[in-house]
Amino acid sequence: MKKLLCIAIIAVMVLFSCKKDNNTATATAPVQNSIKYANGLQLYKYNGYSIVKVTQPWPGAVKPYTYVMRQKNATLPDSLKQYTVVNVPVKKLVATSTTHIPSLEMLGVENTLTGFAGTKYVSSDKTRALIDSGKIKEAGDNETLNAEVVIDLAPDAIIAFAVDGTNKTLATLQNAGLNVLYNGDWTEQSPLGKAEWIKFFGALYGMEGKSEKIFNDIEKNYHDAQKLAKQVTAKPTVMGGAMLNDQWLLPQGESWAAQFFNDAGASYIWAQSKGTGSLSLPFEQVLDKAANAGFWIGPSQFTSFSEMRSANPHYAEFKPFKTKKVYSYSIKKGKTGGLIFYEMAPNRPDLVLKDLIYIFHPELLPGHQLQFFEQLK
User: Fold this and answer.
1) 199 in Cβ contact with 215 (< 8 Å)
2) What letter would DSSP give residue 143?
3) How many CB atoms lie within 10 A of CB 316?
4) pLDDT, averaged in runs of 10, over the chain (377 residues)
5) Which value, in Å, is the radius of gyration of the alpha carbons in the chain?
């Protein structure tokens, strides 16, 4: 199962300042970065091309990656030719993370996907049909791509996932003349920041306008739901996570999950903890602090109360276990076992937020159907 792992503005201005190159193409004055929420992505739209800067492809990355998306017949300034140049719209793509799938489908370009790393994890019915028909080839694992297969596919671009910059396979593919583009959507720690990476794919397909509209709709839906949740006067307490080996892993207070709890009108018990990853705590400490929590969201891989009790009888000591207010995202799966939450939730934070609002405050969204979560039985 895949786990969710859990800028210089001056330099940009210098890079794109007005000057004429040897090909008589002129770079216009710097335009405004169109990215509002994503910390690791910048996008600049020019006449005939777009500049995409990925500033955080993985945690702790020390240099940005710049990609030039060139439209047909566009002439680039010499100053941009040192970067990876991709002719758009791309016709053939290899992707490496299930979080890339919803963006391709929302843009209507899933048919351009010719290779994917870890096809068994894909949940979407639409893309699964392409996989089952042989139109999308298995390309290896997300960090150990099968170089032979990928080179044979000859994609216009490879959208790479990496935890650091030492992937030898990606270097091999670049040396073979293929365009490797890092995507850092998974490093974002705000719900809308993750979703905004659809604009990365919009630039790849020359669909900046369409990706902007899609994101604006998601943004509006999210804010509308957020405003709805602000009406509540009583916020239920919420806990999360479960034991792994001898430690309880749960979201830190500045994480993606913690922000969802807050925006949904709940009081996350560890909201004051610092960091965007996971806390690792002994069972006794969690029990002492969260024994009387109102809700338990995301109990790791568990899909039933019997599973939880078998794994650790002490789970039954928590109030949400006793009152059956435990909700999991591990129940809803694609037909080959991939978790729908891991694939789609980063792209549709508005739906995640509505799910949580309905769980905590069902009176605010009467008739809502849960998209990602399900109450344990």
Assistant:
1) yes
2) S
3) 11
4) 35 31 43 94 96 95 96 94 96 97 98 97 96 97 88 97 88 96 95 98 97 98 98 96 95 96 98 94 97 97 96 97 98 94 97 98 97 97
5) 22
